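Human: I would love a firmer grasp of how sequence relates to backbone shape in proteins. Take your time, and here it is.
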Amino acid sequence: MRNLLQAAAALLLFCAAAFSGQPERGNLLLDSYGKVLLITPEGSSRPLADNANQALLSPDGSRLAFTTDLDPKAANSPQKLVVMPIAGGPQTEIVELPPDAHFGHIVWRPDGAALAYDAVVHGKSDDLFIAQVPPAKNGPQNFGHWYQGISFSPDGKEIVHAVNNGPGESGGLEVLDVASGKRTLLYQTKTIVWDARYSPDGKQIAYVMTLREPENTDDEPDCTPPTLGLWIYSVEERSSQPVEIRSAPKGWDDMKNFAWSPDGKNIALTVGTTDCDYPGSAAGVFLTNLGQTQQTRLSTGDMSFEPAFSPDGSAVAFVDFSNSQAKLMRYQVSSGKLSVICEATPQSNYYSLHDWK
């Protein structure tokens, strides 16, 4: 799947406690050109790490895992995976990759005692590993060839990911049993699958699938990516259905990113136009229940993306770049109130929302 846009400048934030009432728990994780920032729901911020390629809060929100280059100034620097407490303290190096490899995805195991990641050697291999936190003496465990995404089941016993047979062929959802290493094709799809994630209750798997490929009318290079859609697979019923946002404007048929609610009953997702660059020319954030009987547009502008639920599910945060300055927004689900958490400065005017834990 196309890489999500990373933040674009060293970030200075105007943050204010614009929310009245009981504040949400947890912290939001922002990235600005590799600078990782921790933001409270009330708007205060502080930096956690520099030169991060990826960053993710632990399930309980107490630690940060991030990947970084050993030498940020080198063109092909080796990469390492690091964990640090957000309250302050020493960093723990979990693993360092060989010089010819880089990290694909990183994901915390639900109990917070391990991290899964895939290590990619371009043109040669892409293997899944699980590393204990703190590191085990015998190092990470290699589970073999991997593809497209890492998502643990709520009990941590299984991992689901997308598999594909090749261009123009069918794909599917494959589940790995962590204890035995056995792999099972759970569901076969009609086209290419890009991402798959268990719901927090383990009853559903949301996955991204190609709806259509770009039409190339001549021999000129075309940067347009495939148009993507979101589908929900029911583990119990072994069936799948598409997510269709009926209130989306005409031409907004490309699903860009999504987030499960903590109870697994709702999904917040970004829908917009299909464009060469992320986030494209237009996009908005929507909320839908699994039955798709209740759908709400959370954003008001035409350039909003990257939703994240609060730990209790009472609010959804997202980035809005509809005006001249980027904003981090909060939508209160019960009241429908939309407010600003933080606003960027003209000098450093882009950021990416990674997490809320």
About this structure: The chain has one domain: 13-212+226-356.
